[in-house]
Structure formats: C-alpha cells, structure tokens
C-alpha cells in the first residue's frame, strides 16, 4: 500500500520541502464531514492518526461505507483529476490528526516542477491502484464462488 512516506521518499529533499512548506496540521473531531460526493475537491489529507470512513450515496438509504482509511494513508485523490469533484463522501469516525494540502497549490507545484509532479502523480496512481485491487478482492469475497478470492 502506498504510504505518505512513499510520497516523500520519492523526491529529492528540496522538492519534499516544497510540499511540507505548504502543508497544514489539522485536528478533526469525531463525526466531522470532510467532503461530499459530487462537490468540489479542493484539498486532500494524509492521515496521521485516527480513521476516516469513505461513503457512497445510496438513493433512499443512508450512505454506504465503502472503505475506512487510517494512519499514513492518503485521503482524497479527486482533487488531481478534472473536473475536480469528489467521487465519494468522507467523515471521521473518531478524532483525526492529519496533514492538509491545498489542492490548487499542489497542482500548480506539479505543473511547475516535473520532478515533484511525477512523484505526486505516481503516489496517487499507486494509491488508486492499491484501492482498486482491494475493492476487487472484497467483491470476490462477497459475490464470487467460495474460495475464489485471495486471502489478504
């Protein structure tokens, strides 16, 4: 699984400093809604502690939790791809400490610095690929023939 350390390890110290200079430490109380599906994706977080539930709107019912993220994980990748709208909703399940980034500032940095941009895009791509893999395994566990999914 791609971790925050993977992002920073993938770039030279001067590029790493560019990102850490714009980072903001945040403390989020329990049951804080961070974003809603379909709304503008204007920031992202790397979780330091606590858990955040990702959910998807289900017409006529409560939103369904599709994944829970924790320490060291990237929260949000919709900010990197036009039209910059959240694909899911997210809320804290308890107190969360995180590092928050302004999406527009990071996108501008990625455009102006190809080394930093490549590291950020690769980190996000690895995160998305990892989550897709885990989603497929969960789907096999739910709907596939008995024993068809690998144990993880």
Structure write-up:
The protein has 152 residues and is an alpha+beta fold. It has a single domain (4-141), classed as Sandwich (Jelly Rolls), CATH 2.60.120. Helices cover 37% and strands 26% of the residues. It is built from four helices and eight strands; from the N terminus they run ααββββββββαα. Helix 3 (103-112) crosses helix 4. The radius of gyration is 16 Å and the shape is globular. The two termini are 12 Å apart. The mean pLDDT is 89.
Number of helices: 4
The CATH superfamily name is Jelly Rolls
Q: Helicity range of the residues?
A: 25-40%
Strand content: 25-35%
CATH class: Mainly Beta
- How many distinct domains? 1
Organism: Streptomyces gilvosporeus
Pfam family, one: cNMP_binding
Protein name: Cyclic nucleotide-binding domain-containing protein
Domain Cyclic nucleotide-binding: 7-76
Topology:
Blueprint: H1 4-9, H2 13-22, E1 24-28, E2 33-35, E3 43-49, E4 52-56, E5 64-69, E6 74-75, E7 89-92, E8 96-102, H3 103-112, H4 114-143
Antiparallel strand pairs: 1-8, 2-7, 3-6, 3-8, 4-5, 4-7
Question: What brief labels describe this structure?
Answer:
single chain, 152 residues, alpha+beta, Jelly Rolls, 4-stranded antiparallel beta sheet, 4 helices, 8 strands, 37% helix, globular, cNMP-bd_dom
In a nutshell, what does this entry contain?
The protein has 152 residues and is an alpha+beta fold. 37% of the residues lie in helices and 26% in strands. It contains four helices and eight strands.
């Amino acid at each position: 699984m791609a971790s925050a350390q993977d992002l920073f390890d993938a770039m030279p110290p001067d590029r790493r400093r560019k990102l850490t200079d714009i980072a903001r430490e945040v403390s989020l109380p329990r049951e804080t809604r961070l974003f809603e599906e379909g709304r503008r994706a204007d920031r992202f977080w790397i979780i330091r502690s606590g858990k955040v539930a990702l959910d998807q709107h289900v017409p006529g019912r409560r939103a369904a939790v599709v994944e829970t993220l924790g320490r060291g994980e990237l929260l949000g990748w919709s900010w990197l791809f036009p039209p910059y709208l959240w694909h899911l909703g997210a809320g804290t399940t308890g107190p969360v400490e995180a590092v928050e980034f302004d999406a527009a500032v990071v996108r501008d940095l990625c455009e102006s610095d190809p080394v930093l941009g490549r590291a950020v895009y690769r980190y996000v791509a690895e995160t998305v690929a990892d989550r897709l893999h885990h989603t497929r395994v969960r789907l096999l566990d739910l709907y596939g023939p008995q024993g068809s999914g690998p144990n993880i």
